[in-house]
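User: Hey, quick favor. My workstation is busy. Could you predict this chain's structure for me?
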Amino acid sequence: MPTVQPASEPKIDIAQFRDLLERLHPFAAVLDIDVVDIGFGTACLRLPQRSAHQRLGGMVAGPMLMGLADLALYAAVVGATGNPDAVTSSLTINFLRKAPPGDILAHARIHKTGRLCAGEVLLEPAQGGAPVAQVISTWSLPRRT
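Assistant: No problem, here it is.
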């Protein structure tokens, strides 16, 4: 089974990924996520501070964090495989502490590629501090015809 080779060039750049989202996944714009970096099997995305992203008490809402993590993993999968048809097959999130108001960074890394990709994401406050959540996910890559 193929494994991720960190020294390889990404199969998509930031501008191409943004275009991909606009054309095929316009719902991604709802979160207003900024694509900071895409590598071969890695990605960093930022969820900006917005009152619409917060729940009672001022913390960033869990569904916003899940959406951020899912999109970060999608970027990492496409960066490693070049396959924009990848779909989430599982996603488990472990909330470690409340996410304070402010930007949140998602650092995604793919550990295995193939017909099924596996990876993880750490979500942490952009201003620094301990991670607020850890995500484990698998992605299915349909056969390209």
